[in-house]
Write a structure and sequence with these properties.
13 strands; 6-stranded mixed beta sheet; binds zinc ion; 7-stranded mixed beta sheet; single chain; Metallo-beta-lactamase, Chain A; alpha/beta; globular
């Protein structure tokens, strides 16, 4: 078995993803409750005890929510940037992170998985510590991981070019947000939406598709569209949906003469208990 990925959930209600081989399992972010993570791992025949470490990408609650509980309960190491750790402590001590003695720097390798870490542009208005994106390598296979970033630099595109699987956010649709910004009904969200669109916010469908057309090669088998801003309790809050995002990605890839990999939906669907984690194929 080679390098694979499972999205337990992705979106503003909580993010958690597993990257694994036969020997090693790494969790990226722990934004669901510990109980929900355990349930979702069970659905994929995993137990929390198999997780070799949790890497936190940044200090937003939808990414770190249960990391303290999970680490304490199952003795899992936490890896993150010092600045991210300190920011979490200033925001929230209920997640037990303050009771954990050691938080480690993200290593170059966990088990048989090599890890490349790079900075991404995200936060400020809502402090995020030092946000990172990730590349995982095992036996020539590569998985790229970028969510929560305002734009994709040329350097990031170069790092993730030709990955076998790419996990990337398509947070909002530009037309939807622009319409909301000129509609009084969304006045209370005006600053938040401005931040989402900024270079320190999130990627739009358009930015996601443009970045993918520089990163996808014949080697790229699967794309996971992540952190889609869709609210299942109130559709008026939606800044995007999966069909819009995937149609746009397909359109841009075809237009630029690229092959179109399989595209997966990754978000957590409200309280829908029939929703399953999304697993890449081998
Ligand atoms: Zn997020
Ligand atoms: Zn964030």
């Amino acid at each position: 078995m080679s390098l694979n990925i499972i999205s337990l959930a992705s979106g503003s209600s909580g993010n958690s993803t597993i990257i694994f081989t036969d020997d090693t399992a790494i969790m990226i972010d722990s934004g669901l409750t510990a109980r929900e993570i355990k349930n979702r791992l069970n659905m994929c025949n995993f137990s929390p005890k198999q997780i070799n470490g949790v890497i936190l990408t940044h200090a937003h609650k939808d990414h770190y929510r249960s990391v303290g509980t999970l680490s304490k309960k199952f003795d899992i190491k936490i890896y993150t940037e010092e600045e991210t750790y300190n920011t979490i402590l200033t925001k929230d001590n209920k997640n037990m992170l303050s009771k954990i003695e050691t938080v480690y720097e993200t290593p170059y390798r966990i088990g048989d998985i090599e890890i490349v870490m790079f900075s991404v542009s995200h936060g400020i208005t809502i402090p995020a510590g030092k946000p990172i994106g990730l590349l995982f390598i095992n036996n020539e296979k590569k998985i790229g991981y970028i969510t929560d970033l305002g734009y994709v630099t040329d350097e990031i595109k170069e790092i993730l070019k030709g990955c076998n699987k790419i996990f990337i956010e398509a947070n909002y649709d530009e037309k939807i947000i622009k319409r909301k910004l000129s509609d009084k009904k969304y006045n209370s969200q005006w600053w938040y939406l401005k931040w989402v669109m900024s270079n320190m916010g999130h990627l739009s469908n358009e930015q996601c598709a443009d970045a993918l057309s520089d990163m996808v090669t014949e080697k790229t088998e699967e794309i996971f569209l992540a952190h889609i801003s869709q609210n299942h309790q109130d559709p008026d809050m939606d800044n995007n949906n999966f069909d819009l995002a995937s149609d746009h990605v397909k359109y841009i890839l075809k237009k630029n003469g690229k092959h179109v990999p399989k595209i997966y939906k990754t978000y957590r669907k409200g309280r829908d208990k029939t929703w399953n984690p999304v697993k890449g194929s081998f």
